[in-house]
Predict the structure.
Amino acid sequence: MKSIRRGQHLITIMLLVFLAGFGYLLYRLQHNAGFYISHAKSTPLGYVYDRKGEILFDPEATAGKYDADYFIDIGNLIGDNSKQMTNTLVAQNLPALTNYSFTLGERSDGHAAIYCTLDHEVNRKVYDAFGAKDGCAVAYNYKTGEIYVCFSKPSVNILDGYSNIESLPEGSLLCTVFSPTVPGSMQKIATTAAAFETMGNAVLDKRYACAGSYTNLGGQVIRCHAAVGHGEQGLSEAFANSCNPFFAQLVEDPAWTLDDIAGVYRKMGYRINNEGEQTYLEFDGLSAYTASTTLIDKTDFNTQWGCMGQGMTLVSPLQMMVWQSAIANTTGISTLPYLIGHTTTVTGKTAQTASTAFGEAMFSEQTAASVREIMLENGRGHYAELLPGTDVGVKSGTAQVENGDKENSLLTGFVDDPAFPVAFCIRIDDRKSGEVTTSQIAAVLLQELKASLNE
Amino acid sequence: MSELLDLITSLKAADLILCAAAVVILDLFALSIIIMASREGKLCKKRWQKVSAGVELRLPDADFPLEADEILLGRHISADIRLTDPSVSRYHAVMTVSRGQWIITDLDSKGGTFVDGRRVHQSVVPPGSSLRLGNVELYLVHQSTPHRRPAAGTEAVRRRKGGHRRV
Amino acid sequence: MFKNGLSYAGSILLMLIAHAAMLGIVLVRGSYTTPMDLVPLVLAVLGLDLAGIIAAALYRQMTYTLDIMLLTILGMSLIYQSCFGGIGLSLKHLITCIAALVACEIGFLLTRNHEWIRRHKPWIYGIIGVLVLAILFLTGGRSMWINIGSFSLQPSEFIKPCYILICAASIVELHKKIKILFFYVSVDTLCLCGATVLIFGLQWWCRDLGSLPTFAAIFGCALVCRLCYPRAKINKPAIAAMCIGGGMLAMAAWTLAPAYVQDRLHVDIWADQYGSGYQQCQALIGIARGGWLGAGPGQGYLHNVFAHESDIVFSTISEEWGLLYAGLTVVILLIMLTTTLMNPPKNYYHAMMAAGVTAAFLAQMALNIFGSCNLIPFTGVTLPFISMGGSSMMTCGFLVGMLKAAQSPLFHHEIKMGRKKTTRKTERRAQA
């Protein structure tokens, strides 16, 4: 009797537990079916379009269907389903692109698609503007986060089918916008922000002399790119001149400590002295390096050199562009970028729509406004030709790579126009004098983009 | 909803009807099995009434239906009929049924097992007879027999008060 | 016993229609060259049904529910197994289906008299011993299989019903204790624990860790029945001790498990899609491809994957017949176990036996279905009645026979009471 009842209760409990598990399994299978099917050997895939409806990815792309170099600029960003590249839009978003639903099964005539925020036409023009040079460029709307332009050169032509994979230059399969790079003097934006954040506007009163080189408190010599020196100057002039001795003396200033600098750097996404885990900026399945540097002693050459963007400092071009949003919006908060505007399912229903997201606060609104003013001043003085009639806040940089054998030229900035809120970052690899400049490319980018967005 | 419509239009009509029919039939089958099993359950219950002679054990204020063919009486927590009187052993006696006859077997208890006042080791318990385990007295009666409440205040009742618990 | 006749006829008719509908789906959606290919399958399924019904009708018993359910499941299973990778009768599966039906009757006849089977408990221990020795000496090394010609047997499967029987017996004879030194101990409990350790140790030694959870579930059932008393004070110290012991055992198993088990516990199947996660990935992709209604019998891809007919059979059915139908098949299996609730047993032994059978079935089903769908680590166990495999089919048939016995028991006590010794004949008459 009692034992019988006990046995019956036990059977009921076991059955209920199994049923609960089975119900969960059915839900899970139904819910994850798109993910499962995207791992199958062959599944019908949809297209990826740009903001104007141009095709960025076609699962049945052949050399005859498109111009031979149609996909060249976005090869390593949009990618394809060949599984040769992993950090690409298609590879990371295969489930969204699969023409499949659990109820309908696989449909070759489905409407699954990804609509990107990219402007393929402008992207291509900027890519061509690089000419024979390699490098990368990225631009986005610093109010909404839509990425308009993003590519890195050399890229891979997906129409070639990876038959020439051996002969491709190194880094072709990687969009270097997301990879760490030496920022050069663009790092001075971060150092300037840190100075404002710690000392307030008092930093504008600080003046240091530059005689072409400076022997720091550690007894090491910091050289300026101008051999004759810049004389005595304030922060705005030094920022425009990109004067190394000035920033060395600013770092050594007793008014702040190394922890002050490190504190602001950390908020800006830096990993300092290899402490903790390296952080990455993740969006739409893609992942981009943030930044890292080494800070040991204020009077040490390498620490000062790091604060000027050389030596051990590494930042991804995307991260540098994202900083501009915090400055341009004068909020101190970054606008996070995104590449997928919306997606549609197999039935053509809109599945996920992007929305603007913001990062953590990097610095105060006061600091953002001050840095913004300095950058705009620099732009008005030296880069008026970028977008005639509109102010552009700019900082250039030269990064010494491969032990100083090569110099990369970099430019980052933002447009001061509420109707055209664009921030950008451009890098030309191994630039020598006489070749195309970053400001020429920035001019192409901004002018073409403005024309395209106004159409 | 639109997916469902698409599906209906995309499948061949014969496919759809067949799939639906197969699923519905299997559901019906499951339903008929459940009905059948519960009917069989009732039949088996009736059969059990015959096998067990339809009797139950009674204390003055509690009934113990006998729903298994082997029933353990005792003070132990796992006993089917638990009598908490200290005079009852943990495993006192076991009742089994055969051919409509209940048989009680004493499990070497200290207090002893009595059928109609006679101490037994193993004995048939006819319906209507009284059982005594230690100091606790029970009656084996037909389920239809009306309850007899002994007059309050008798010594037997006082002794038994709180001496049992229905479990 | 035929008072329920109308209900039986209805259920049998529905069973035949269900099988006919499935064959209709095969005809319309299946992949075959000529409709003549289907004839052997149709004949086999309907023949099996008719033979089963006639056998059940000839043999008078208390309940027919489980017989009809078993026939339905076996027919479905035969159709499923015959359609994998193209339609044609799977003769091997037909033979094992018949073996399962026979095993069911044997299980029923052996266990319906609980007094008799309890008295023969030493024999059951003996059978377990023989099976253990067979595994040790006949399988050749650390394996679970005995190969006789082209047939291979898995003796560890046959241990399952024996183990359930000794678990049930030990629960029933709980109150028979003897005093050793200062402790009252139940000899049965000691024997059961000894057998458990032996079986677990053997499974561990043979690296057959797939069956371990099934035995653990049966033993867990017995433990719970032994320790928890409903509506009374729960034996807290015992349960706490049990939890701690179980936890320590699990920890030990976790750390001491051989490397290949460790790999299975930690593997991310999608990261190694073409390596160790191949079967599960293909199984999940198959289910996804099938959707609710399936790709059609014989139209799947999974039949190219190893163990498609046994370990990942749920996915193979889902792919070809749709998740809806595969899910319903599982529900039918569950209803089979629910019949015990609707028609409760009338004695301890059968109640414990039914709980043990339910635990064994549910553990196997959970391991097979949840394992192949990557909810829990993947172990190679079979899905009762659906998977191909003679040993498994026969054991499952035997277990269902035990369930049937619990619902249709023989009340037969041979208590020596002078002249009142009952005979089987008079007993039967009394029941009727």
